[in-house]
């Protein structure tokens, strides 16, 4: 596995690989790799000739009161894990290499950010879109892999690629979970022992919501989810939402997919989880229409 | 010369050309081509294997009270001129092709836009940077050519390419001028006969300013330029400025280059012009320091 820290070296290496017709698969990460990241690398390995993994804790996507400084880091362990998962290149630039000066230009995300994490993490997705724009130009991927645990991120990245005509295919991959259903996340290490047990109720609340949605409307279901999470965890429920996906707007009959998403703040970790399902409101709302005929 | 209107076709054509090792030179324009544009194409012809010219009047870079609707257009004439200048591909998408929906993401320009045209044309450079981000992904140029008549645009594009790590070399080319010194521009057709004669004083004011700058400071020189333009034209002097280039900040001893720039509003045309020179304030300001010793 090649280790690269400089942008120019990364660009040069990739342009040589692409000249010989190779397809590049890219897994951008903030490091502290877990099974979720490794599953993206393994997926990339099946579809691409050269697998590039980046590790960069991007200051632009952290708010002033967020956990940039204490975000967990372990480069030596990450190197070993990426190597074992089949990465061909590990790109880990430092902050000065990525942002030598206060930037002249940044990307602004104007849609898909007024709900869920975008509502409380103002500017977060601008930072994500900006760093990915840079990374896509540095790594020139044919395929880029993202975990659907961060479904809003995948929606924003799809918008970025579509609107800016990036010649990149975005591949959202299913969330990897612990045996009790907890979505894997680098931030899970912040949980206390008790919180770790409670945290399985996030995924439980999503599965229950899917059933509640068959009998009630989305507003009712959101309220039931809050109640469930408040009863089963000590955390603060930041949101429990049902929206269209990937638009992240209030769902309507026309929405093809729905996302059911939650965010819960524990003492030192803010956890998120979601499931994306076919629009089951279609049936229900058509039912309502039939009723309203008489 | 190949005529292309669809993004996917353009991307496909270029990826085939690049696969065979060809270098791509790109001249993005808003059409209504003049000698200035043609000189960019001729320059590109010397350095690249495939010359792509785009024509797209980009709505995103026009303000609500600007001249988007009446911006001059003549596609048939442009086709002929581009062909004669040696273009290999003319890419002219329509607005729906470039912006099928309200965009999720746009580029925000945070520096180099508080002065000159950026001050009055709010959002203009965001629109320029957004459309160029798209066009760079559609055309994949190795070299992109811009006229230095729009020097602020070149400064912003250089910031865009540097900050976003685009694998593109930006080449700013000298302003082409009519025999009386008027900088060539698609908007010159808007001038009345009298205004057309007066308009040569824009370039005259720049040359005079360079001399005034040797004897006075930049503030004094700016005032003299306004006076000169007010005396010699019927237009409204929107700005006359001396700034560091490409930063577009108040000049200091450390500035390597200076830009002397003017914008004058005539009845139906707003004209701009500039010259970029080595920092002659260095000498002068060191002189001042010597004086202040006693």
TrEMBL record, chains A, B:
<comment type="pathway">
    <text>Cofactor biosynthesis; (R)-pantothenate biosynthesis; (R)-pantothenate from (R)-pantoate and beta-alanine: step 1/1.</text>
</comment>
<comment type="function">
    <text>Catalyzes the condensation of pantoate with beta-alanine in an ATP-dependent reaction via a pantoyl-adenylate intermediate.</text>
</comment>
<keyword id="KW-0566">Pantothenate biosynthesis</keyword>
<comment type="similarity">
    <text>Belongs to the pantothenate synthetase family.</text>
</comment>
<keyword id="KW-0067">ATP-binding</keyword>
<feature type="active site" description="Proton donor">
    <location>
        <position position="37"/>
    </location>
</feature>
<feature type="binding site">
    <location>
        <begin position="30"/>
        <end position="37"/>
    </location>
    <ligand>
        <name>ATP</name>
    </ligand>
</feature>
<feature type="binding site">
    <location>
        <position position="61"/>
    </location>
    <ligand>
        <name>(R)-pantoate</name>
    </ligand>
</feature>
<protein>
    <recommendedName>
        <fullName>Pantothenate synthetase</fullName>
        <ecNumber>6.3.2.1</ecNumber>
    </recommendedName>
</protein>
<dbReference type="InterPro" id="IPR003721">
    <property type="entry name" value="Pantoate_ligase"/>
</dbReference>
<dbReference type="GO" id="GO:0004592">
    <property type="term" value="F:pantoate-beta-alanine ligase activity"/>
</dbReference>
<keyword id="KW-0963">Cytoplasm</keyword>
<dbReference type="GO" id="GO:0005524">
    <property type="term" value="F:ATP binding"/>
</dbReference>
<feature type="binding site">
    <location>
        <position position="61"/>
    </location>
    <ligand>
        <name>beta-alanine</name>
    </ligand>
</feature>
<comment type="subunit">
    <text>Homodimer.</text>
</comment>
<dbReference type="InterPro" id="IPR042176">
    <property type="entry name" value="Pantoate_ligase_C"/>
</dbReference>
<feature type="binding site">
    <location>
        <position position="153"/>
    </location>
    <ligand>
        <name>(R)-pantoate</name>
    </ligand>
</feature>
<feature type="binding site">
    <location>
        <begin position="147"/>
        <end position="150"/>
    </location>
    <ligand>
        <name>ATP</name>
    </ligand>
</feature>
<feature type="binding site">
    <location>
        <begin position="184"/>
        <end position="187"/>
    </location>
    <ligand>
        <name>ATP</name>
    </ligand>
</feature>
<keyword id="KW-0547">Nucleotide-binding</keyword>
<dbReference type="GO" id="GO:0015940">
    <property type="term" value="P:pantothenate biosynthetic process"/>
</dbReference>
<dbReference type="Pfam" id="PF02569">
    <property type="entry name" value="Pantoate_ligase"/>
</dbReference>
<dbReference type="GO" id="GO:0005829">
    <property type="term" value="C:cytosol"/>
</dbReference>
<dbReference type="InterPro" id="IPR014729">
    <property type="entry name" value="Rossmann-like_a/b/a_fold"/>
</dbReference>
<keyword id="KW-0436">Ligase</keyword>
<dbReference type="InterPro" id="IPR004821">
    <property type="entry name" value="Cyt_trans-like"/>
</dbReference>
């Amino acid at each position: 596995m090649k280790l690269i820290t400089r942008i120019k070296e990364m660009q040069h290496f990739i342009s040589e690989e692409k000249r010989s017709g190779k397809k590049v698969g890219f897994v951008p990460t903030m490091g502290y790799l877990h099974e979720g990241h490794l599953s993206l690398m393994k997926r990339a390995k099946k579809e691409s000739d050269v697998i590039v993994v980046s590790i960069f804790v991007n200051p632009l996507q952290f708010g002033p009161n967020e956990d940039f400084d204490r975000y967990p880091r372990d480069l030596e362990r990450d190197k070993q894990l990426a190597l074992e998962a089949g990465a061909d290149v590990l790109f880990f630039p430092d902050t000065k290499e990525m942002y030598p000066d206060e930037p002249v230009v940044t990307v602004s995300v104007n849609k898909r950010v007024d709900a869920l994490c975008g509502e409380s993490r103002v500017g977060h997705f601008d930072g994500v879109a900006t760093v990915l724009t840079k990374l896509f130009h540095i790594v020139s991927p044919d395929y880029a892999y993202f975990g659907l645990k961060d479904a809003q991120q995948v929606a924003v990245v799809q918008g970025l690629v579509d609107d800016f005509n990036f010649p990149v295919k975005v591949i959202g991959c299913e969330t990897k979970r612990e045996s009790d259903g907890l979505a894997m996340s680098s931030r899970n290490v912040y949980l206390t022992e008790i919180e770790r047990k409670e945290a399985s109720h996030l995924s439980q609340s999503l599965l229950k919501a899917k059933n509640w949605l068959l009998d009630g409307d989305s507003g009712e279901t959101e309220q039931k989810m809050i109640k469930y999470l408040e009863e089963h965890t000590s955390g603060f429920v930041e949101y429990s939402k049902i929206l269209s996906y990937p638009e992240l707007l209030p769902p309507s009959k026309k929405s093809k997919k729905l996302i059911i998403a939650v965010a819960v703040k524990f003492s030192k970790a803010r956890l998120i989880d979601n499931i994306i399902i076919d629009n089951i409101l279609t049936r229900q709302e058509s039912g309502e229409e039939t009723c309203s005929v008489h």
